[in-house]
Amino acid sequence: MKNIRGKARLLGDEVNTDIHCSSKYFSGKDNAYVAQHAFEQLVPDFVARFKPGDVIIAGRNFGINSSREQAVHVMRLMGVAAIVAASFGRQFFRNCINNGLPVVECELAAIAEGDEIEIDLTGGRIAVPARGLVREVPPLPAEVQAILAAGGLIPFLKAHPDWKINETADTRR
After folding, report:
1. Number of domains in the chain
2. Which residues contact 164 (CB under 8 A, 6 or more apart)?
3. How far is CA 55 from CA 46, 83, 115, 156, in A?
């Protein structure tokens, strides 16, 4: 899997999926419209500053509170390259993997808005070269990396119809 490089876009702790894509925009609106308003309850100009390829950096419990898969679809439409957070809601974490959006658990409180961040999912390394910041994280399991590389679970299963779960794989996520 290739390394990810992008600008850090900061969000805080306890950012639930209702804030990702507020239900007040759902009535009769498509995901593209909702993506134009993502996170505005937290950071009013977030979408205006966000560019495709940027990386969301968040605190604890990012994506908590809902199994709303639409939040991941909205972030994919925005062009989010990856999300790094101190922790994730478990359903949200799996929704990201299943939809091909890389997620990494790591505390990155020293990062500032707009910092260039580099993520090596295979090697388990996150860096902000300008700050000399390097964090080692457990690499994502090979199976998860393969799903992400394919663009999500459905494309992976279509490409590998005979694939079987490795019984020794770490399936805690």
Report:
1. 1
2. none
3. 12, 6, 10, 23
Residue 53 has pLDDT above 70, yes or no: yes
Q: Is the pLDDT of residue 33 over 90?
A: no
pLDDT of 135 higher than 90:
yes
In a domain, 165, yes or no: no
Any domain includes 10: yes
What does the radius of gyration of the chain's CA atoms come to, in whole angstroms?
A: 16
Contact criterion met (CB below 8 Å) for 95 and 89: no
CATH of residue 95: 3.20.19.10
- DSSP H or E segment with residue 126: strand 125-128
* Domain presence at residue 169: no
161 Cβ neighbours under 8 A, 6+ residues apart: none
| Residues 6+ away with beta carbon under 8 Å from 92 | 17, 62, 63, 64, 66, 67, 71, 72
Instruction: Give the pair of three-digit tokens for residue 144.
Output: 């998860």
Higher pLDDT, 29 or 105: 105
Q: What pTM, to 2 d.p., does this model score?
A: 0.88
Full residue range of the structural domain in which residue 155 is found: 4-159
Q: What percent of the chain has pLDDT above 90?
A: 58
167 is a domain residue: no
Strands 4-10 and 55-58: parallel
Q: Specify the pLDDT at position 164.
A: 77
